[in-house]
Amino acid sequence: MDLLGSDIELQRSFSDEFKKKGRLALFGCGTAPGMSNIMAAHGVNLVEKPESIEILDACVDMVPDTEPIEVDGQKVSPRALLLTLLSNQLPETQKAPDFRGHMMVVVKGEQGGKRVEYTITEYATERLALEMQKKGIFSSYRTGLYAAIATLMIGRGQVEKKGALYPEECIPTGLFLKEAAKAGIEVDVTGKEWV
User: Which of 28, 43, 59, 120 could form a disulfide with 39 if both were Cys (CB 3.0 to 4.6 A apart)?
Assistant: First the structure.
């Protein structure tokens, strides 16, 4: 298993040899790539004719608590600025900031002659997020968690394809999302018609 190292195309060139030996080399099975690919594949499986896939990964943890920088003559901490902006929204749009890590995949396409849009959202449960934050870990644990889920599925024989593959090529998406839920990751799938 590789969380996405170098020379992937070279490694993929050995796919036929892996198949012959009944083995699987799995590439990019962390958060993004990894869970993002699985969420996208799951959305594509929900439509007859997929048209577009949009992947959004928003996590406050990606903004480091660095030394202040100068913006228009004022010294500001990038993370403190982001947290202040999130906490001071207009009353009609105000939501409590969600610092659990968050990824969203939007798949648009056609289903039954209608244009549809599926949104698949992923984030840690509050319990899991608090548990990790007590250890000083904010969202990076998700990368290892998704790799661990894939490893368990392979070990249980739930991933049948062999070769040198990406997760969306071999992992049963619905089963993976159920396993993620057992591990403390909430996954919501919503659909609607669009024009």
Answer: 120
How many Cβ atoms sit within 10 Å of the Cβ of residue 34? 27
Structurally, how many domains does the chain consist of?
A: 1
Q: What is the pLDDT of residues 21-44, one digit of tens each?
A: 999 999 888 888 899 999 999 999
The boundaries of the domain holding residue 109 are 8-61+96-193
pTM of the model: 0.77
Is omega for the bond preceding 172 within 30 degrees of 0, making it cis? no
Task: Give backbone dihedrals phi and psi of 110, rounded to 5 degrees, phi first.
Answer: -120, 135
Which residues, 6 or more positions from 12, have their beta carbon under 8 angstroms from its beta carbon?
27, 164
Residues constituting the chain: 195
- The two three-digit tokens of residue 178, written as one number: 């159920």
Q: What are phi and psi of 142, to 5 degrees?
A: -60, -35
